[in-house]
């Protein structure tokens, strides 16, 4: 599912939403502190978004579903625009 919206997610997710997604993913043990710091060390918002989606996709469908659920909570408009229902 995430692969189909990969480019759109990178182009459209905002910095504040990315921060909230990172917090939720860390809380749910989808990512660890090192992975979170890797994302935060990226210079651009797009690079951060790419790092988040790549990291989560590598962890499989359950991790991807948790990211999608978190996105629905944090940015319902983007969730709907990406057709992730």
TrEMBL record:
One of its GO terms (molecular function) is cysteine-type endopeptidase activity. PROSITE patterns: CARD (PS50209). GO terms for cellular component: AIM2 inflammasome complex; IPAF inflammasome complex; NLRP3 inflammasome complex. Pfam families: CARD. Residues 1-85 form the CARD domain. InterPro entries: CARD, DEATH-like_dom_sf, Pept_C14. One of its GO terms (biological process) is regulation of apoptotic process. This is CARD domain-containing protein.
């Amino acid at each position: 599912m995430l692969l189909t919206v990969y480019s759109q997610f990178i182009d459209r997710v905002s910095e504040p939403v990315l921060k909230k997604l990172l917090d939720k993913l860390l809380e749910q043990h989808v990512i660890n502190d090192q992975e979170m710091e890797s994302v935060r060390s990226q210079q651009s918002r797009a690079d951060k978004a790419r790092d988040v989606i790549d990291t989560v996709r590598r962890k499989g469908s359950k991790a991807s579903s948790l990211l999608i659920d978190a996105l629905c909570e944090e940015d319902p408009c983007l969730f709907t625009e990406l057709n992730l229902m």
